[in-house]
Amino acid sequence: MIVDVHSHLFTCPDDVGDPFAGESARAHGGPVDLTVRWDDYATSAPEGTRTVVVGGKARRSGLWVDDEAVAAYVAGHPDRLIGYLSLDPTQPGWREELEHGHQDLGLRGVKLMPMYAGFDPASPSLDPLYSYAAEHGLPLLVHTGTTFVSAAPLRYALPVHLDEVAIRHPELRMVLAHLGHPYEGECIAVIRKHRHVYADVSALHYRPFQLWHSLRLVQDYGVWHKLMFGSDYPFTTVNASVDGLRAVGEVPGIPGLPPLDRDEIEKLIHRPSLDLLGLA
To answer: Within the chain, how many helices (H) and strands (E) appear?
Structure first.
């Protein structure tokens, strides 16, 4: 079974405004249809794929998906989908949204977009959020790495910020999105030292050299087991992501160095991520 730990729900144009919508073509070299439709997703993933669905909240970047929409979408396919609530801590009422999304809507994790919303994820002012998530077994999916949105401060996307969070909250399960690209080395340093901190490989396959290089670092640091499979749908699909991972596994590598471990790539594709995140 494949577990996709990183997919989105957008119902454009209601959820996605500018600058996010207008600048999304920078994501990988062309316009992206951001409207999510279940049938489109299901036909682009193997039968039986289990999927984490997030919306997203970041007023600064023009993105706001109500948690009720995520809950309703997940309720239509409960055997396949797991929903996360989203928070923008720069906006009033986020603590109430956290409790509502968890206790009333039954959402099972939290998506944070520090760079898009413009906040420091390591700020001690967010410790109540992290303590609540750890206490109630809500894993975090945190955007790390670069973006196409010009208004989003890159400094808040550095994976090293989550090192401080993990030190203060060692039982909190976190997934750092996109292997922190292009700060993969920093991301690897963080996931290696914390038991419950992982990274996903979503939205990387369409930069094949970067993906190959990143996985070589993963192999050299011995952290294959800390990677989780993700797609970042609708920016790409599960099937395309699987094909991309297998394609870089076929690259012979640099003379004098071993190639990527294909067995580890297959383990990554089929990682039991729901077990690791306490969501099984």
So the answer is: 12, 11
pLDDT at 24 over 60: no
> Environment class of residue 76 by beta-carbon count within 10 Å: exposed (0-12), middle (13-18) or buried (19+)?
exposed
Confidence (pTM): 0.94
Over 80: is that where the pLDDT of 30 sits?
Answer: no
Residues 6+ apart with CB under 8 A from 29: none
For residue 66, give Cα distances in angstroms to 54, 84, 270.
10, 11, 31
The matching CATH number, chosen from 3.40.50.1980, 3.20.20.70, 3.40.250.10, 3.20.20.140, for 3-277 is 3.20.20.140
Residue 20 has pLDDT above 70, yes or no: no
**The predicted structure's pLDDT at residue 18:** 60
